């Protein structure tokens, strides 16, 4: 969708989107820019070659509190103040509790839990009245995907922290989470790839979507844009599921379509 098709409802706002180099984060960067926001993003690598020219980028690992401080300094230097924070960066480790090592804990919780916490702690003081924080949780934070013990738990943490930030920092700042279902990105591809028969796993998963398709990163970006905007001033402390109806179907009726 071209820039001209957006409403510009984020004009004059400044935004940080963590992990905006690809996938859902990239779609949010592009959507926010299309809606008129100035955007700064980060990832563990240098600026991707095809990253939008008008958007700002710094190399920062959200699991490293020193890098998160540098991200805050970049916001002050480039924007002065911040309107929107999207805690999107996240990783997945496919392991049960018994398979999980202390190192796995540090790696996964460092990004998915401490990263969200540290970025929020760094950015809240840079936000004024009307600030909006959007955390990317997961349907795995309220259900349990097999073999994803720490990932599931980390997303439950994200949902809990979302409510706490909303309660402690409202009405000045709103904080909401988005719980995506299957969104077609590198992370989703990697998750299907570990199945015994990835193509069958995909077909079976698709059949459970009342919407008739998997999600696209732009689906999540559209909801993030609404939550970031002044159209959503009454929305705070909530976790918005966006999964094509996947979790709406009764688990007792797996073959609905
Ligand atoms: P991708 O793996 O496609 O992209 C993740 C992005 O995060 C990359 O740009 C990556 O860049 C960045 N990133 C990872 N670790 C860090 C870090 N420590 N510091 C900074 N940036 C980091 O994932 P998705 O786009 O699919 O996922 C985005 C979010 O959505 C995640 O939080 C994920 O858990 C969540 N989600 C995704 C679903 C899906 O089906 N795709 C479903 C539910 C939730 P780099 O590696 O270069 O640092």
Please provide a written account of the structure.
With 257 residues, the protein is α/β, with parallel strands linked by helices. 39% of the residues lie in helices and 17% in strands. It contains seven helices and seven strands, in the order E-H-E-E-H-E-H-E-H-E-H-H-H-E. The protein has a seven-stranded parallel sheet, sandwiched between helices. Strand 1, helix 1 and strand 2 form a beta-alpha-beta unit. The model has no long low-confidence stretch (mean pLDDT 96). The site of NADPH dihydro-nicotinamide-adenine-dinucleotide phosphate has 29 residues, from helix 1, strand 2, helix 3 and helix 5.
Secondary structure layout plus pairing:
Elements lengths: L13 E5 L4 H12 L3 E6 L12 E4 L5 H14 L3 E6 L14 H22 L3 E10 L12 H21 L3 E8 L5 H8 L4 H10 L9 H12 L10 E4 L15
Parallel strand pairs: 1-2, 1-4, 2-3, 4-5, 5-6, 6-7
Helix pairs in contact: 1-7, 2-3, 3-4
This protein binds NADPH dihydro-nicotinamide-adenine-dinucleotide phosphate (NDP).
Q: Mind telling me the C-alpha Rg?
A: 18 Å
Q: Write down the overall geometry.
A: globular
Query: What's the tally of helices?
Result: 7
Bound molecules: NADPH dihydro-nicotinamide-adenine-dinucleotide phosphate
What is the structural class? alpha/beta
Question: What are the segments in which pLDDT stays under 50 over at least 5 consecutive residues?
Answer: none
Spell the H/E element sequence. Answer: EHEEHEHEHEHHHE
Strand portion, in percent?
Answer: 15-25%
Distance between the termini: 31 Å
């Amino acid at each position: 969708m071209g820039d001209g098709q957006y409403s510009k409802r984020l004009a004059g706002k400044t935004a940080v989107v963590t992990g905006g180099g690809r996938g859902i984060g990239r779609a949010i960067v592009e959507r926010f820019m299309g809606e008129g926001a100035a955007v700064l993003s980060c990832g563990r690598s240098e600026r991707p070659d095809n990253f939008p020219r008008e958007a700002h980028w710094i190399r920062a690992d959200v699991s490293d509190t020193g890098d998160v401080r540098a991200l805050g300094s970049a916001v002050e230097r480039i924007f002065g103040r911040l309107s929107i924070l999207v805690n999107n960066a996240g990783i997945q480790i496919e392991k049960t509790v018994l398979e999980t090592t202390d190192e796995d804990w540090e790696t996964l919780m460092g990004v998915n839990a401490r990263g969200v916490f540290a970025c929020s702690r760094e950015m809240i003081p840079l936000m004024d009245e009307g600030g909006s924080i959007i955390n990317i949780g997961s349907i795995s934070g309220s259900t349990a995907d097999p073999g994803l013990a720490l990932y599931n738990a980390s997303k439950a943490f994200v949902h809990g922290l979302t409510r706490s930030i909303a309660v402690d920092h409202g009405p000045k700042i709103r904080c909401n989470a988005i719980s995506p279902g299957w969104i077609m990105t590198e992370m989703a591809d990697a998750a299907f790839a570990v199945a015994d028969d990835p193509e069958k796993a995909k077909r079976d998963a698709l059949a459970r979507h009342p919407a008739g398709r998997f999600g696209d990163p732009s689906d999540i970006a559209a909801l993030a844009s609404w939550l970031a905007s002044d159209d959503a001033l009454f929305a705070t402390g909530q976790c918005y599921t966006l999964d094509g109806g996947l979790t709406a179907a009764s688990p007792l009726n797996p073959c609905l379509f």
